[in-house]
Amino acid sequence: MSTRRDFLRTTALGATALALTSRLPGAGDSAPPDPAAARRALTAGHRNLFNGDTCVYFYNPERWQPEGGPFTARAIHRYVANLRQCGIDTFIINANASKAWYPSKAIPSILDGYRRGDREFFRGHAVCGGFTKPDEVETYMDGAVVFFNRYLDLLEAGVDWLAETARACRAEDVAPWVSIRMNDLHGHRNFTGSFFNHPLLKRPEMRLHHSTYPGMAGDPTYREGLNYELPEVRDLMFAQIREVVEDYDFDGLELDWWRQPLCCEPNASEATVAMMTDWFRGIRALTQRRAARNGRPYYFGLRLPGRLESLRSIGIDVVTLCREGTVDFLCPSGFWRTAWDLPHDDLRRQVGEHPAIYGVIEDGANAIPTLAPALKATRDIRLISSSREMLHANAAGKLVLGADGIEWFNFYCTDQARIPGLVSDYSLLRDIHRLDLLRGQPKHYAFADRGFTGLAQPPFEAPPQVPVILEHNWRQSFRLPMCAEPADRGLKLVVQVVVKKTDPVGELPVVFNACWPQAKRTATDRLLYPSGPFTHHAPDHVAYNYELPVTLIRDGWNEIVVENGHAQPVTIVCLELAVMPVG
To answer: CATH class for domain 4-114+150-332?
Structure first.
């Protein structure tokens, strides 16, 4: 068994042979006889998954095609080779937004009607990117021409970049999977004028009209996605899914319900839920037929929010799909900002033993602003693919709750910023799914905060634990999954409480896992660990560090309690924790 593919042929194929020949599970059927065995077969070869969007090769050509010139397939092969060298076993490539971004024969494609240099093609989308001033719109259109000409370079050379991705994966012995965004709304601010939008999305009668609720923050048009209760919508999406399954050389399919978590009108009836469940079974039948044709498994899963009850309210019955064996894997996540406290243990209890559950590491840490003094620059969000310590902590918190592996999402976004010293460190991908190797390593834990209004997705994300206001003598408990650390590595635990600089702070004791309250602290303006050149908190905040024994950390959920002993209220902006060397 000289390659990973040989290993899969002798393990996963044998374990799933029955599934390939048996009838598709239906309503009322029981789960496979040994659902955990099917999960073990999947995770034997798929533990370290990398999700790349439709632009993953095209964002930073200076990195993937440094020789310049027209964009070529060399960039694709270099990218995939880099993933393999950094330990990725499965590459999940995203094929679409609202339209297909590859040369689809089934649905409209993103560049249909574009001619090289046609700036006006992009004007209607400028407002969707937040560009409204005349000079901003002109600058945007100039950049869009340069960017999308790279796709045109490949098309004119006869290269289908989606098919080329699968070929590059085969050459590098990386499993090729494909991801389909189920309700992408990048063009929501101009439904009729943005070139992003599928013709069906331009029609109001095809869109959702009740997916908001009174008091909900954010732009209501961001919830006007396609309505899957309508057969035209289901047929459209099924046609694209069938194309990538039947006509492309992939081994897995992920349906991305984080772009967006919109399906049917809320409070869907039982009949609507049953209709959608049957629709998912039809997709499963596609993948099973492809698996039988290939002679190897074709896995089917969902990227989704972690609040399964909210998903069922819009027609997606995740629990039934998992327990009957229709869905092989789940990738639960936060939206853009990584979820630090997602309850993978509770999700396992809900969905049973059949599906693999991956911990998803998003590139955004939280919306706590940070400062790079040398650059005189601030950012409203940390991009953690440049932070070894944050990635180690985020992965450990997921794995210790039972995640079967890791899926990386938006890892490459750090490069897009083009800030000196801030780069996506692909070497950090290696072995991130191995909890045994993470123990004893420096770590930087954080909490997801309320974030930006445009990035928040209520009610699909759990309410964030921070920020919180503590009145006099109020206490607040916070929970965070962490992994226990060896006692003989010379490590300590540091709890950092970040508060508003304008708040008067008196006694502010901290309790970790019911230890005696620790009042001794050190004021600082520095982050526990840097994120590239960003080393300090923004001037509006001040932090207090509390040192504690690392042996207090336990596997799984840990509790931090903060008490305000001052007569005036204090705002806890965030809590951060570090495992770091003593001294």
So the answer is: alpha beta
Structure tokens belonging to residue 238: 């099924």
Helix (H, G, I), strand (E, B) or coil at 321: helix
- Asked if 206 contacts 230 with a C-beta cutoff of 8 angstroms, the reply is yes
Cis peptide before 25 (omega within 30 of 0): no
Q: Contact 229/274 with Cβ under 8 angstroms?
A: no
CA distance 321 to 77: 35
Neighbours of 504 (CB within 10 A): 11
* Residue-wise DSSP of 550-582: GGG--SEEEEEEEE--SSS-EEEEEEEEEEEE-
Q: Provide the residue type at 140 as one letter.
A: Y
Nearest to 224 by CA among 263, 173, 178, 281: 263
Which tens digits make up the pLDDT trace of 51-91? 999 999 999 999 999 999 999 999 999 999 999 999 999 99
What's the gap between Cα 282 and its chain centre?
26
The verdict on domain 468-581 having CATH code 2.60.120 is yes
Taking only the tens place, the pLDDT of each residue in 432-481 is 999 999 999 999 999 998 876 666 788 999 899 999 999 999 999 999 99
- Check: pTM over 0.85? Answer yes or no: yes
Output b/e per residue, 221-255; b: 16+ Cβ within 10 A: ebbbbbbbbbeebbebbbebbebbbeebebbbbbb
For 532-554, what is each residue's pLDDT tens digit?
A: 999 999 999 999 999 999 999 99
Contact 564, 471 (CB under 8 A): yes
Strand spans (E) along 283-363: 299-304, 329-332, 356-362
Alpha carbon 565 to its chain centroid, in Å, reads: 39
**φ/ψ (deg, to 5) at 4:** -60, -35
Residue 274's nearest CA partner among 27, 543, 556, 544 is: 27
What are the domain boundaries of the chain? 4-114+150-332, 468-581
